[in-house]
Amino acid sequence: MVQVMARPVWAGVVSFGLVSLPVALYTATDSHTIRFHQLQRGTADRIRNKRINERTGDEVDIGEIVKGYDTGGEYVIVEPKELDDIAPGRSKALEVSAFVDLDTVDPIFFDKTYYLGPRGEQYSKVYALLQRALAESNKAGIATFVMRGHEYLVALKAEDDLLTLHTLHWADEIRDPHQEVPDLPGTTEPTAAEVKMAHQLIDALTTEWNPQDFHDSFQEKVKALIEAKAAGESVEKAEPAAEPTGVIDLMDALRASVERARSPKDTGEKASTSRNTGHAKKPAAKKRAGTSDAESLRSLTKADLYDRAAKAGIKGRSHMTHEQLADALADTGQGRRTS
Fold first, then answer.
1. Residue 124, domain CATH
2. Is 59 part of a structural domain of the chain?
3. 105, 128, 230: which is closest to 174 by C-alpha?
4. What is the number of structural domains in the chain?
5. Which residue segment(s) compose the domain that 132 sits in?
6. Helices (H) and strands (E) in the chain, counts
């Protein structure tokens, strides 16, 4: 089977100093969102969006549409070609104006990621040079360029063995949180005991970052909903959201959370936390059945455990830790099939 290579979304020249590198830009991410069509209820009739003249009610061809800026009662008309004529960088240039320490770029500025590749083998050495220099210096090249009629502020980074381009928000696009977010803590301070317990909870839940451990559980539920409705079956509703933790029982909720997150090897027994109240239930006195099965399951990764839990139809799996997934699978006899 012949693999079809992706088409670049932009091609141009990256320049830093007097060094130039012809490059091509490729989309780095895909969306797995399930797309729905709009239908009129009770029919299979599609609903279409049309460009309608609000005065006449007539549909307007896209070639007849111009842009208008409202100045307060009157419109300034701008033709699409006029925007193309004034767009900077029509020469397909991406000139790095500065290099900055990567750690100083606040994550809030990052928007979308693209892969950057050389346009031809003859440029591999220049490409490799820039990639290695950025990786070893932990710096990012800051530049602007134009794509599809828009100018973008970008950061050029080294990622493993390639270069990536990250579009950045402009400074005036970042909103002030103190003007946007009500009820920020201000001078409210937690107690020293609460802070210590919170640190213990964070330590108990700390693990290595592995994106494969996480799944879009909502999209899975949407797929299950579609499959069930197509088969004429009913769908179980999700559990209600947890009630907010009050100030009075904050320490109890933190303590129960720490006990729940710790491994049975550390605590000797696992505490179970009520979803809605945050209070720990009494641990079972007897050794749970299927302990040997659970131990063998714990040798698997969380991603493998999650896949098995999905196939077994275990409810609430998207909220379970590695240990909880292993225990739940052991109860279904899955531990006998780890090999």
1. 2.40.290.10
2. no
3. 105
4. 2
5. 10-28+86-173
6. 10, 11
Q: Which helix (H) or strand (E) holds 120?
A: none
Question: Taking residues 117-121, what's their average pLDDT?
Answer: 91
Boundary-marking domain end, from 107, 140, 173: 173
Which residues have C-beta within 8 Å of that of residue 60, sequence separation ≥ 6?
51, 52, 53
Residue 56 tokens, joined:
């006449």
Dump pLDDT digits (tens) for 86-114: 765 555 788 899 999 999 999 999 999 99
Q: Are 100 and 106 in contact (CB under 8 A)?
A: no
Both 141 and 211 in a single domain? no
Residue 284 near residue 267 (C-beta atoms within 8 A): no
The most confident of the ranges 32-41, 65-74, 97-106, 243-252 is 97-106
In a domain, 4, yes or no: no
91 half-sphere exposure, CB direction, 13 A CA radius = 6
Flag whether 155 is in a domain.
yes
Quote the CA–CA distance of 38 and 317 in Å, as a whole number. 31
**Contact (CB, 8 A) for 51 and 62:** yes
What is the rounded CA–CA span in Å between residue 133 and residue 157? 10
β-pair type (93-101, 10-16) = parallel
Domain co-membership, 20 together with 168 = yes
